[in-house]
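Re: weekly structure request thread

Next one in the queue (293 aa):
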Amino acid sequence: MRIFPLSLWLVGLLLGSIATNALSLYSTMFDDDDGDLCPAEICDEQLMNPAAIRHYSSEAKRPTRTTRRLTNAMRLALGLPLNPPKSRRADARPQVSPVPQTTYEGLIEVRNLTDSSSLGYISFRQRASGVFRIRPEVEHALIVTFSLDVGATFGSGIGFEMNNADGPLLGLVQGRENNGSDLSSGSANYLYFNGIGLPGSPPGSVPTELPNTFTLRTGEPRTAESSVWTVDLVTGQLSVVWTNSDGKPATPIHTWVQFNFLYAGGNPDLYQDLFPIYPLSLISLHFVPQTPS
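Done, posted below.
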């Protein structure tokens, strides 16, 4: 008669063990800060460490056709008129030399816009969709490099390359819930800080479907821009610029964090109305240089 209660006890013990193991597995697969509810725009996504997607394969260059110029002797033999005389003035045109540049390497510190207190650094750890977060530990900081003309302390339309995260370029990608690619003060549209594949986009480019980590990991096509950074080495101030589809820079553009993840957009209040459960904080970004090469 005691076998039945004993069996129930064993079943209960077994179920408890399964639940404990499942919870342990969940905590190792997912960010333990997420909790059971979706408190922000970021919902139920696994974290990944920098690994497989280090560099996107860029489009192969097409072979260049070369044309051989016939000599006057060849042209006479073929019954063709002689080549026109060369212009010495044209041959004497000065050749433009590339401007030498200095490459800088460093971290991106995130500060509260209200009181300038440090919130930490952009971390090399990304969500499964490639969205970047902030963490207080400097050892988890993302390392970026960029180049400016020698002697310059300011630059805009700059591309950032990441040394220890997927991309390899750090740019902006159209948000998941956007209605189009454009930003404005009257729109809730927003942008992710995300990894973008080579070769990226030139400064001032309109939103284009570039290779990016969000699309790669979710299968959802999104527009992106990579040469979006403005750098002031004197103050350390960093900012981003997004070019709308009409070719004009979006103004204003704000940056913020929600649930420790980074966003940019034209109207943080309208964004907050879309995702009201967890508050956002307006931020500023600052370059912390390491050793220039």
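The mean pLDDT is 78. The radius of gyration is 27 Å.
Next request, please.
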